[in-house]
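This section describes the prediction task in plain terms. A model, or a person checking by hand, is given the sequence of a single protein chain and must write out its three-dimensional structure as a string of tokens. No templates, partner chains or ligands are provided. The sample shown here is typical of the held-out split.
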Amino acid sequence: MPEQMAEAFFPCPPERVWQVVTDPTQWVWPGGPQWVRGLRDGLHFFTEDDDGLETAFRITAFAPVRWYGVELESERVAGRCEALLFRERGGTRVEFTASVEGKTAWRRLLLRLCLGRWQRQYIAEVKRSLEV
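The expected answer:
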């Protein structure tokens, strides 16, 4: 399973970064936040794309203002994503790790080629959401 780690610094307190990182409606979905179908039972949320494909997310790590992790699965992909937050130099350093595998040869290739770019796009959107 390919794993991609990226690091980013945000010039704002960890509490503010935490709010954006842990709110799925702030994440970058191709179809926008309307793809998010809500948090169920406090541990699960789902997205549904324009084609009706549902992706299930299960929160696996929740240490407020420090560590957040989810496992994800759809008929196309499965894996995990984590964010570790560190208070640093008057702001917040975050380590984002994504380990996601495609369920077909085509999806595996696509993820190997694009996971890093998608992670950079996510970090740019976090910055935009934080207005930094």
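For orientation: The chain has a mean pLDDT of 88.
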